[in-house]
Design brief:
single chain; mainly alpha; 54% helix; 0% strand; 10 helices
Amino acid sequence: LSHQPESAWAHMRREFAHFEFEDDPGGLAAWRQGRTGYPLVDAGMRQLTSQGWVHNRARLVVASFLTKHLLIDWREGARFFLQHLMDGDLPSNNGGWQWVAGTGTDAAPYYRIFNPVTQAERHDPRGDYIRRWVPELRAVEGKAVFDPYHRLDRAAFKELGYPEPHVDFQETKARCVQRYKQDMADADP
């Protein structure tokens, strides 16, 4: 950051300078409020806004969701995190956001997209973290807690008072990969 101060708020990888992000105020609001319909994302965002801290795994998943599934500019997430994190540090925060978004110098490949359901199953196998931060899901038994919209019948899901998924994971993953491929092809001289 001391050598490239513009990197705080500009893509480190210049080929993404004209990347077309989505304008999705509803998605951004749902993400900020922890109401995306993806339990691990919602748990992470609710912990962030409640405690001012969130575990690195949850940070990765919520950042991936914002930048890859919603295709919202990483800077929106970086700003929101800096407003809420008690351990917020501009170089670390924004560098991490660029890593997840695929726009940083040591970025994860654009096609690395965290699946919030499988990440929850792998890193919160009993669903304790989700149940702690998403009270609507405390009584959900077993693996349904990771994806209640698809694993419960409609009536049981509606009774929870939990939102339906804001986006379809598979559709947004495909859209993301296509958008990044197209942007990279357009940037290639």
